[in-house]
Write a structure and sequence with these properties.
With 239 residues, the chain is α/β, with parallel strands linked by helices. The protein has ten helices and seven strands. It has two domains: 156 residues, Rossmann fold (3-Layer(aba) Sandwich); 66 residues, Helicase, Ruva Protein, domain 3 (Orthogonal Bundle), CATH 1.10.8.
């Protein structure tokens, strides 16, 4: 993670504090977010190093961007994420102009494949679009079930994700997200079929963007999605 003394850290799911304690030896400040009441009680009983603040909260309900701004830059986000929340949390943090310097996340290998996927591959979907637009993501560790206690039934991957400056002007981010969501909701449908009932101006937008309506969403690059959303927005305003 290349953690530095000037970094603050937000850790999701400290568990028994196995990672929290070595983090505290380097980082200027750490906020550990734990949803499990029993683990919170145990951590408070055993104690954590100075500079660590333990918060009993659900990470999905925490405004992580506001927390990063509260801590002040630079801030790193770390976590060993349960599969049931990992996808939603990744979608929430892969945004333009992220306040975090870096993310380091342990996730299920299948989900890592979705984050790192390229257009035209089976794993390519909304998460890959967001990651490719606003971050640089890479696979650092591949871990089998034997590396964990208790032993899970899945393989895991540690990914490092570096937010980058929003050099691509995306226009209406909400419209872009809706276009991408609809394009992948029914993967076997063409873009014409996937978008026309849900996105006003989709047909005209496809023509204006120079994108064949017979293509499927999984064939579009992240930049083509941006141009399509912009074109749809222009056509919608024109009407």
């Amino acid at each position: 993670m290349d953690l530095k003394p000037e970094d603050a850290v937000v850790e999701i799911g400290p568990g028994l504090g196995g990672l929290t304690r070595p983090i505290a030896c380097v980082a200027r400040r750490t906020v550990a977010i734990e949803v499990d009441r029993g683990l919170v009680a145990l951590l408070r009983q055993t104690g954590l190093p100075g500079g660590v603040e333990l918060r009993h909260a659900d990470a999905l309900r925490v405004d992580l961007g506001a927390l990063a701004r509260e801590l002040g830059p630079p801030v790193v986000l770390l976590g060993n994420l349960p599969y049931r929340i990992a996808g939603r949390l990744l979608a929430a943090v892969c945004v333009p102009d992220s306040p975090f310097r870096r993310f380091g996340l342990m996730i299920q290998a299948e989900l890592a494949d979705r984050v790192l996927a390229k257009p035209g591959t089976p794993a390519y979907g909304p998460l890959a679009v967001w990651a490719r637009l606003w971050t640089e993501a890479r696979r650092m560790l591949a871990l089998g079930p034997e590396e964990f206690v208790p032993r899970p039934k899945v393989r895991s991957t540690f990914v490092v994700i570096d937010p980058r400056p929003a050099t691509v002007r995306v226009g209406d981010v909400g419209l872009l997200r809706e276009v991408v969501r609809c394009a992948f909701q029914h993967r076997r449908k063409t873009l014409r079929g996937a978008l026309r009932r849900r996105i006003p101006g989709a047909e005209a937008g496809l023509r204006a963007a120079g994108i064949d309506p017979g293509r499927r969403g999984e064939t579009l690059s992240e930049l083509e999605f941006v141009e399509l959303a912009k074109a749809i927005g222009r056509e919608d305003r024109a009407e």
